[in-house]
Amino acid sequence: MKIDNIHFVDSVFSLSRLPEGELPEIAFAGRSNVGKSSLINCLVRRKNLVKVSARPGKTQSLNFYLVDETLHLVDLPGYGYAKVDKGLQEKWRLLISSYLETRPNLRCVVVIIDLRHALKDLDRMLIGWLQSVAVPYLPVYTKMDKLSRNEQQRQARALDAGLGITAADRLLFSAKTGEGREELLARLDTYLLP
Q: In this structure, what is the dihedral angle of CA atoms 168, 150, 44, 122, given to the nearest 10 degrees?
């Protein structure tokens, strides 16, 4: 995948406002403050396309970005942030699950997981749910620059075991150094093939 031109399209708060047309979509999901915005910015080589916030729960809608008039990247609200009102959490959950289950344009969900920590139940549940509804997904373990190579491998093996996947099923990524960017672009290409 090559990205020459990208711009923000819309913040969607209900399924009735989803962009029309048949452009393929790649969604990005992850726990609040896992580095989702930083990963997308690194991927598209723009510092501030997606706003990075130290405050978890900042993304509250499905944010659509148009890539070269041929593809949408979709930034989903982070999940698992307890300080957000329960009613709002439920609204997000319904919006996200409905979008993921029913959107025919969706080609892949990039599930972003912090490499530094043990697998969280919500990450395991999301991947299990994506498997059950047959939505393609790609786990990406972020913040690899925060660990030594040995720690990266040890943590990645533990996450793989918890998710029941192999090293070939996921990739490691650093938004800070850009390591893993080219591999992620190449992997995403495979989901866009007709």
A: 70
